[in-house]
């Protein structure tokens, strides 16, 4: 190991080798790489996991976090994603509480600091992996590979593939999982701190390591894999197992096979039993909590897993592995989402892409052969641990044990990248040792670090807002329907409907079964009064996905606009059948009944909307207006007061209730509500016009004249206001003549 570390002396200056300075440099580099994302918005999955997640708010009991998935749905639900990360959600909730709401800066800052802390911890982890485990008499661990550990930690801190985890707030799950993963590993190392006798250990630290592994899993599922890494480390480093020697003796039926020290090491076998039983127990509890079994993913999420042929599945899985390896090796083409046709299936051996998994396995086999057959025990240990750190944390995302809901995901490479950085550092050291052009090697290493830091900063900027993030994906995954959908949605939210239509149409072209794109496109066409095409799209969407409640509701709105009232009612009822608690659908159903003069049914529908969503202002308003128009002033007043108790600052409710009170000759109270509504929304012509009518009735003619004039300034085309103003002027002229 001393030789490898010495071969890096021309790359890592001795001035930064003391532990404090090494960690300071790594921490500084990690913060510089991702600092640009500190003031970014909530983007992509942040909306569902944070903004729309009721588990973050104080109204939700803390106990519910242990029964809900990452997105706030009950784990027992058949629609649950089954991603169980209660400790991550708890940190979001603390964030929300301390900063007083959804202020993204505080969420982003925590993520950046977490990555900095993990990168600093990596210095200690790499020092163990490269230099082995050795303590002083005082129990202080020695760093026998200061240069190697520092270089590997710098490569980790500045790897661009980490941007999704750091710049995307939901990436905190991966960060927290990695943090406790590393703490578990370092804790396991401490089990051998006070022992100089081979085979002895501290059971406390082993059990604490298992506990930290369980905590890591409660932050992100792959955290549990640390127990596998601990076992590999124990066998290779503590037990000093020579795998090649064991295989040779087993093949030759050597009698000395039974006398291998590792197999007779009771302490090692006891620790393996603890790790195995601890891991099995944690996984069993996790499975019981999931309730209804694994989540149900769709073909667009992971098309290879739905292929009929086992061979096609195997080839495509291996192709996905090669893409993950390429992202580690050359992290220039990064995308927020790799699904929806971004990576077409390999369906024949003639596809040139089959060369990628072949190349990957040739590299892996070469590394495995070196890890097993090298005569250098340090080389064997480093390569085996590097491969272990690369492969073991990746196993939950490999599709080997269960189907996952993605094709490629940069976030799952956060921990495996540590193994890659370890292997890369080893490669640089070996190359430097066998070449005289050491300055060239140093220049290459520094160049890679600089380019990676630059890429991190650029990519962090792209993650600051959704527009940049989504558009950055167009060049990486032009065949990804979800990319076009998200660009279109972002444009639609900004009011650019024409441009949004173009991207939605492209999303539907790329994926003819993309019901969400059809639904959003149908909505825009509905607003542009292109009702026939909107109906066709929405009808197709519900035909493809019969339980798509939002599409059924929007189809009902279009059918209502086309005066096809019976079909509209059926669509609304179908939407409610598939989503029982759907206040917006009840609201639209109420509008349909109002158009048909079915007033009782309309009031019942709007009342259902307000029961499900007490802050549904439009439903409350429509109830007040309908009761007012039908002469039920007392009932209208009662509903208005009830609504204002629930939504006290809604100016539209103040306005509606003020109209009712005015008709009931409660002029003073009506005036106060009108003035309060005008203060909240001073440019509403109707507010000034109706206040003028109140003053007109009340006999405050000068004030009526003033507000009629303000209303007409704001809206000169208001015929009713013009007529009332004309009546007032004639009355004032008559009064002046009488006075004369």
Largest sheet: none
Q: Quick check: average pLDDT? A: 89
Distance between the termini: 113 Å
Could you name the ranges where pLDDT drops below 50 across 5 or more consecutive residues?
none
Helix content: 55-70%
Strand content: under 5%
Rg is 33 Å
Which word captures the global form?
elongated
Determine the structural class based on helices, strands and strand pairing. Answer: mainly alpha
**How many DSSP-defined strands?**
0
Count helical runs: 33
What's the helix and strand layout?
Layout: H1 2-6, H2 19-34, H3 46-51, H4 86-99, H5 104-131, H6 146-157, H7 163-167, H8 172-190, H9 203-219, H10 226-238, H11 243-251, H12 266-290, H13 310-329, H14 355-373, H15 377-391, H16 416-433, H17 438-462, H18 466-472, H19 481-493, H20 497-510, H21 515-527, H22 531-544, H23 549-561, H24 565-578, H25 583-595, H26 599-612, H27 617-629, H28 633-646, H29 651-663, H30 667-680, H31 685-698, H32 701-714, H33 719-739
Helix pairs in contact: 2-5, 2-6, 2-17, 5-6, 5-8, 6-16, 8-9, 8-10, 9-12, 10-12, 10-15, 13-14, 14-15, 15-16, 18-19, 19-20, 20-21, 21-22, 21-23, 22-23, 23-24, 23-25, 24-25, 25-26, 25-27, 26-27, 27-28, 27-29, 28-29, 29-30, 30-31, 31-32, 32-33
């Amino acid at each position: 190991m001393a030789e490898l570390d010495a071969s890096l002396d021309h790359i890592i200056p001795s001035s930064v080798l003391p532990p404090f300075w090494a960690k300071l440099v790594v921490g500084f580099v990690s913060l510089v790489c991702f600092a640009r994302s500190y003031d970014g918005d909530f983007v992509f999955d942040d909306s569902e996991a944070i903004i729309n997640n009721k588990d973050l708010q104080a109204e939700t009991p803390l106990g519910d976090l242990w029964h809900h998935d990452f997105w706030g749905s009950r784990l027992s639900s058949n629609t649950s994603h089954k991603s169980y990360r209660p400790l991550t959600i708890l940190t979001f909730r603390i964030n929300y509480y301390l900063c007083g709401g959804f202020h993204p800066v505080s969420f982003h800052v925590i993520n950046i600091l977490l990555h900095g802390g993990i990168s600093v911890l990596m210095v200690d982890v790499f020092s163990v992996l490269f230099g082995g485990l050795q303590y002083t008499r005082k129990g202080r661990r020695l760093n026998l590979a200061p240069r190697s550990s520092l270089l590997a930690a710098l490569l980790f801190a500045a790897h661009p593939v980490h941007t999704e985890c750091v710049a995307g707030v939901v990436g905190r799950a991966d960060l927290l999982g990695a943090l406790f993963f590393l703490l578990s590993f370092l804790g396991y190392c401490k089990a051998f701190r006070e022992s100089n006798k081979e085979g002895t250990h501290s059971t406390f630290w082993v059990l604490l390591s298992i506990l930290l592994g369980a905590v890591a899993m409660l932050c992100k599922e792959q955290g549990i894999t640390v127990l596998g890494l601990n076992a590999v480390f124990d066998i290779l480093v503590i037990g000093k197992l020579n795998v090649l020697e064991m295989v040779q003796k087993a093949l030759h039926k050597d009698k000395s096979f039974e006398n291998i020290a590792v197999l007779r090491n009771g302490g090692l076998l006891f620790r393996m039993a603890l790790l195995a039983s601890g891991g099995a127990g944690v996984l069993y509890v996790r499975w019981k909590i999931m309730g209804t079994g694994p989540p149900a993913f769709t073909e667009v999420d992971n098309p290879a897993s739905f292929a009929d042929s086992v061979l096609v599945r195997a080839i495509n899985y291996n192709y996905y592995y090669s893409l993950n390896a390429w992202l580690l090796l050359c992290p220039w083409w990064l995308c927020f989402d790799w699904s929806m046709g971004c990576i077409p299936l390999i369906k024949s051996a003639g596809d040139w892409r089959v060369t990628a998994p072949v190349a990957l396995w040739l590299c892996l086999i070469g590394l495995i052969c070196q890890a097993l057959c090298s005569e250098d025990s340090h080389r064997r240990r480093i390569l085996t641990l590097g491969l272990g750190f690369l492969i073991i944390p990746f196993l939950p995302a490999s599709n080997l044990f269960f189907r996952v809901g993605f094709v490629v995901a940069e976030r799952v490479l956060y921990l495996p990248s540590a193994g890659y950085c370890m292997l890369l550092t080893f490669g640089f050291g070996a190359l430097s040792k066998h070449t005289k052009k050491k300055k060239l090697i140093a220049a290459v290493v520094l160049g890679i670090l600089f380019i990676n830091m630059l890429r991190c900063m650029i990519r962090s900027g792209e993650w600051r807002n959704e527009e940049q993030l989504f558009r950055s994906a167009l060049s990486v995954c032009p065949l990804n329907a979800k990319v076009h959908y998200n660009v279109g949605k972002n444009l639609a939210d900004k009011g650019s409907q024409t441009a949004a239509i173009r991207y939605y149409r492209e999303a539907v072209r790329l994926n003819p079964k993309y019901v969400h794109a059809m639904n959003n496109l149908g909505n825009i066409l509905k607003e542009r009064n292109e009702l026939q095409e909107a109906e066709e799209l929405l009808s197709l969407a519900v035909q493809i996905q019969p339980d798509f409640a939002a599409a059924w509701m929007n189809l009902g709105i279009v059918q209502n606009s086309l005066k096809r009232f019976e079909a509209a009612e059926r669509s609304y009822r179908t939407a409610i059948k598939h989503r029982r608690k759907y206040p917006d659908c009840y609201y639209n159903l109420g509008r349909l009944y109002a158009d048909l003069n079915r007033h009782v049914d309309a009031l019942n529908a709007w009342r259902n909307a307000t029961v499900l969503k007490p802050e549904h202002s439009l439903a409350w308003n429509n109830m007040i207006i309908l009761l007012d128009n039908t002469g039920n002033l007392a009932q209208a007043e009662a509903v208005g007061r009830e609504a204002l108790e629930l939504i006290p600052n809604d100016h539209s409710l103040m306005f509606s209730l003020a109209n009712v009170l005015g008709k009931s000759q409660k002029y003073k109270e009506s005036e106060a509500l009108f003035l309060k509504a005008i203060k909240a929304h001073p440019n509403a012509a109707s507010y000034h016009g109706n206040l003028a009518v109140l003053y007109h009735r009340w006999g405050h003619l000068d004030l009526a004249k003033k507000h009629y004039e303000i209303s007409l300034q704001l809206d000169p085309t208001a015929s009713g206001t013009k007529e009332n103003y004309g009546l007032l002027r004639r009355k004032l002229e008559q009064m002046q003549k009488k006075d004369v």
